[in-house]
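A reminder from the course coordinator: this example appears on the midterm review sheet, so study it carefully.

Given structure:
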């Protein structure tokens, strides 16, 4: 998740995109991205769309002619951040009445025109399926709200991707979700599951590789449910991964986020026989209790999850598993929580996100009373301690091992490069000759909780 804390911090989504240098000739766009990687991808596409209208990105909201907040609705806190950030923009808009303020993403979809009623300084509200129309909305001027799920495919209307953009990229292959987990807003904010046609994804991937990309992470709210059409046949995610692996220069493939019920045999097999598919899998389970899994509408049991993990590990023994968990779901007892702790202990994760349940308006679970806040807090702390211990152990187990590292940026020390390992761990390598985009072999010499140190092997 990317949640840059301050409005004046560079938004993560600005990384890798053209920044303006010619101070006055162009208009400046500041984007802040909240929430998941799909939003990071959308921010890039919105920046490119506005680029075609003469906007370049700036890292500073104070400099901007337009501020765009690409929002997340997943938990109450995430949504409320929008309103506190809008509050902080008030003085800026007072000093600069021409400043355009746009709200995009999942809060825009969920609250629509309500956002302008609450915060009249907002000029534009645009949903995640309508943002190809953003340039036209800006051009039209005045207040605009568009939260349609348009019939036209937004990807058809976005500009071609061009220019160097760093060695890693996201590629959204699937949008929306039909699973309707009882706690989750995504099926409402992103709409029904839609898979992009395979031919267009292959084309976009080739374009990215031609721009210097060596690692692509395929994205979807339910990415392994991908069912695109291509050559008259249905393509699964496994098929797409196998075809992508044929692209010369594409060295690494990842995908996120997957649902346990959509891990088909071929996808599991691909983890064993596609060398470009990295040994890392984010497979959220949310709870270790059968009772709670049922109440969440997850449609599988803890035993089915264990058996699935066994099969994945049989295909790729060194795979690193990660997950998401929710504690304090309505009706969760001490025993249910003990089952979650037991599941975590049995699986052994490389890392995991855990959240306190947040009641979201319009979802079925929101009708039921939640667990007492102090109890949920204590459970969250205990779970996070266990997960952190596992994370430390996974990092420490890497010491002495030979890994690959894709350099993404220079490190803080002179002559140092920073990149990710096959297992998506951050790695520092002392390599004065190293350049961004190099994919090198290295041996891990030390581990801290959040990163590894390694020496380059020649
Ligand atoms: N599609 C993914 C998850 C997308 S949301 C999946 O099915 O796993 C990312 C994570 O946010 C979820 O995995 C869940 O752990 C958490 N989350 C979603 N809704 C939530 C809520 N109402 N309260 C707390 N956490 C929530
Ligand atoms: Fe939300 Fe469940 Fe869909 Fe994931 S699978 S996006 S948690 S409804
Ligand atoms: Fe948030 Fe929307 Fe992603 S609710 S997690 S930004 S799909």
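Designed residues:
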């Amino acid at each position: 998740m990317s949640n840059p804390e301050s409005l004046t911090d560079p938004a993560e989504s600005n990384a890798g995109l053209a920044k303006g240098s010619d101070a006055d000739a162009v208009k400046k766009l500041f984007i802040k991205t909240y929430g998941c990687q799909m939003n990071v991808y959308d921010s890039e596409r919105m920046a490119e769309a506005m680029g075609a209208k003469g906007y370049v990105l700036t890292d500073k909201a104070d400099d901007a002619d337009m501020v765009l907040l690409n929002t997340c609705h997943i938990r109450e806190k995430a949504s409320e951040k929008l309103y506190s950030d809008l509050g902080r923009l008030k003085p800026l808009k007072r000093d600069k009445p021409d400043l355009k303020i746009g709200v995009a993403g999942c809060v825009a979809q969920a609250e629509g025109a309500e956002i302008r009623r609450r915060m009249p300084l907002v000029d534009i509200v645009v949903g995640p399926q309508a943002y190809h129309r953003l340039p036209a909305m800006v051009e039209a001027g005045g207040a605009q709200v568009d939260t349609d799920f348009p019939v036209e495919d937004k990807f058809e209307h976005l500009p071609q991707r061009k220019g160097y953009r760093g060695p890693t990229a996201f590629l959204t292959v699937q949008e929306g979700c039909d699973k309707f987990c009882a706690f989750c807003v995504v099926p409402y904010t992103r709409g029904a599951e839609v898979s992009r046609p395979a031919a267009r994804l292959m084309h976009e991937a080739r374009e990215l590789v031609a721009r210097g990309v060596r690692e692509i992470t395929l994205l979807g709210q339910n990415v392994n449910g991908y069912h695109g059409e291509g050559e008259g046949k249905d393509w699964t995610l496994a098929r797409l991964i196998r075809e992508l692996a044929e692209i010369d220069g594409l060295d690494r493939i990842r995908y996120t986020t997957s649902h346990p019920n959509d891990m088909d045999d071929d996808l599991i097999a691909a983890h064993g026989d596609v060398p470009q598919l990295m040994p890392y899998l984010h497979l959220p389970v949310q709870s270790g209790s059968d009772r709670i899994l049922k109440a969440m509408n997850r449609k599988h049991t803890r035993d089915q999850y264990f058996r699935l993990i066994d099969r994945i590990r049989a295909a790729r023994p060194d795979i690193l598993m990660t997950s998401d968990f929710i504690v304090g779901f309505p009706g969760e007892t001490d025993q249910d929580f003990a089952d979650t702790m037991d599941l975590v202990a049995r699986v052994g994760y490389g890392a995991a996100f855990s959240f306190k349940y947040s009641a979201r308006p319009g979802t079925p679970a929101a009708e039921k009373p939640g667990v007492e806040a102090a109890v949920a807090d204590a459970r969250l702390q205990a779970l996070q301690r266990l997960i952190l211990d596992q994370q430390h152990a996974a990092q420490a187990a890497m010491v002495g091992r030979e890994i690959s590292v894709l350099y993404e940026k220079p490190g803080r020390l002179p002559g140092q490069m920073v990149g990710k390992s096959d297992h998506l761990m951050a790695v520092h390598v002392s390599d004065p000759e190293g350049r961004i985009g190099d994919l090198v072999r290295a041996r891990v010499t030390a581990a801290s909780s959040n990163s590894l140190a390694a020496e380059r092997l020649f």
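The CA atoms of residues 396 and 447 lie 5 Å apart. The chain has three domains: 6-151, 155-344, 402-456.
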